[in-house]
Amino acid sequence: MIDNDRSAPVFDDEALLTDHALEAQDDFGSEETESVAVAWSRWNAELMPALPKMAAVRRAYDAAVNDGLPEEFAWALADAVTDPTNLRAALNSKRTMPVVGGKFEFIEVDLWTPAVTPMVTNHRAFAERVYPASGSAGARGPLRGPVSDEGVTSTLRTEARDVSHVLAEAERARTFILGENKLAASIAERGIMMPVDVVYNEIHHEDGQPPACLLATAEGSSRVTNAHQVLGITDARTVMYDLPADRDNFRRTVNAILGEDPDEPGLTARAAEKRRGRRNALIVRARVILRFVPTEASAYDYAQAIGGYLGMLHVDGPRPWPTTGKNEAMAESVVRALRHQGAITDVEHDYIGGLMEPEVAIRRGFPGEPDAQAAYVIATMLNPAFRPIVSRAIRDVTAAAKASPSSKAEAAAELALRPIRSLATSLPAEDPTRRRIDAMQAVYRRACRMRLYASGKWRVTGRSPRELLTDALTELTGSAGIATGAGDYSTRTELAALAQFHLTRSGALRREPFGSGGTNLDKRGPHDILQAMLEDVHGLHLLYQAIVDGRAGRAPRIVDENGQLVHGHLDDNDVLVPDPDGPEVEITDRWLRDDAFPRPGLSRPMPTPPQSETPDMKLARLKSNVERSLEALEEQVESLEQHTDDDGTPLIELQGWSTELLLQRLDDLRSRMSFWNGLASRMARRERPATDGQ
């Protein structure tokens, strides 16, 4: 893709620190370093450059303007370059690299590190962002962007509410990077070993403050952030505003570091090592992207192209982002492409992207409940009408030749979870609510793989849970005799999309277990369990109850086939033991898998009788056992019918089966059960109070 081998081992975001570097990590040096040889750095073999004179800077600026760069970009680049002569030469021999939708023109030069800012919208820190849709108090949301104009352009643009908004997000990203990618000691020892990718980014403020015109790292924010830590430039305002806007201040800062002699007589080993570290961190080799040049009739702009470039490096590339970062990169690429292609409006973009407060969303006609917001995102992202746009956007940021259904589901789930993940981020790490939300994310992503979500034959209608249940039961009845997966599933799919939010959040629905585990291990994913629930009256009632309970802030409870809450308990095998006088029972994943919706052909286990079982409790248990046995019989008959020979013909149809004795036994059972049913009906009529007019 580019001239440099990006997959070569580098001291970068995933770099391993040397033992000496780890010892020096806290203060970039220690008294013990006197006996340790100084690690190699670039400046052991080269002289540090001097700060260039302003006349040379001016000539570099003129050359950049003549090359067509915007004036602010030209000034930022001329001030930042260590050797203005090299900049002028590089502009005369620009290089190109192909990217999605066109090409980048770029140059490679050395820059003063204090002149380079980390990209404040770094995908690596996505997991720490708090979106307005979370409803968290004081949540201002992430910065918007970067975005860009159509056609040939050199400028990326980020939108912020005000300066404090930028500083808060910059500090959040900085804290995350320094905690997750501790490269300061390595950089102090050796400098930044590989080039970073630098773009021109303007941060605009809604309150009318002048924009910040920055050279920002499109790729390499972890290295630059850690280099700033070594240099002692740790305040976000200094990095983002003070140094870029005040040339004199910037030049004094650089000159002060250049004037520090690590070999000055009388320095302690610690002081000398610290000075040497600052000199090593002072200069960064940069691949400066000058402009994006789209191909003819390209459907991409600069922002999409840079997103695709970064995705190729970090989603499936040699230096992957964390799971959330990868999925967020795909999600961002999709939602940006949907808006760019006119598939969704700007308002829909903000709602789907989690950038709209719940009360604002309701005023604008969008669902306000968290489960409905998440379902709306899934329905939009997996809509077949948008499939070409979604597939292309995912391919843009991955190395995959084809966007798989699972990758589309992952991207949709990541957007759907933005509000609740933001809520978790605003809570202490040990908070039980945060732990539950953290645990639900992988399960929710797997649940989004249910094929019906990508059918396009459903949407979020705003019907109440009760209305959804009524219509879903009618829909199920109407599908009798139709093959599973065929027919109308629109209401049932909406019901499942709302319920899975609460089932996964409560832990009542978990992902399939890892490992081999033998033939008894249930390998069905959460999406398979949801699908099974949609084919059954009992399942629809359970989904309805999950929504009702989840919206009330409690764990989903078990109901029976008539939707009545069940009392009793789950035994050691999570088999339901009914007890009319017992407590209500909460749904568990094991109960769903093994008791309520077992794998086809696998009989449900019988509940273990409790030690203090009363006669009424035993009667309820025995009735339940009969129902389980009948279901097991039905499953065995279905398996028998599906058993075929090599030509695919059911063997039972070729050989038949003499079942006369079995039918007699079944008739006897039917006669006895009919008697019990009639007895129950007569008793119910006697107990029913008389009403006027009867």
What is the overall pLDDT average? 83
Task: Count the E strands.
Answer: 10
Question: Overall 3D geometry?
Answer: elongated
Terminus-to-terminus distance: 85 Å
Rg over CA atoms, rounded to whole Å, is 32 Å
Q: How much helical structure, as a percent, in the residues?
A: 40-55%
Account of the protein in words:
With 694 residues, the protein is an alpha/beta fold. It has a domain at 19-33 and 109-301. 49% of the residues lie in helices and 9% in strands. The protein has 27 helices and ten strands. It has helices spanning 19-23, 42-45, 54-66, 71-80, 84-91, 163-180, 184-190, 221-231, 236-245, 247-258, 269-281, 302-314, 323-340, 346-352, 358-363, 370-381, 387-396, 405-425, 432-447, 465-478, 490-506, 526-534, 537-551, 589-596, 615-642, 651-655, 660-687; strands spanning 95-99, 102-112, 116-118, 144-147, 155-160, 196-205, 212-219, 283-294, 568-570, 576-578. The strands form two sheets. Strands 1, 2, 3, 4, 5, 6, 7 and 8 form an eight-stranded mixed β-sheet that branches. Strand 6 (196-205) and strand 7 (212-219) form a beta hairpin. Helix 16 runs antiparallel to helix 18 (405-425) and helix 20 (465-478) packs antiparallel against helix 23. The radius of gyration is 32 Å and the shape is elongated. The model is unreliable at 1-38 (pLDDT under 50).
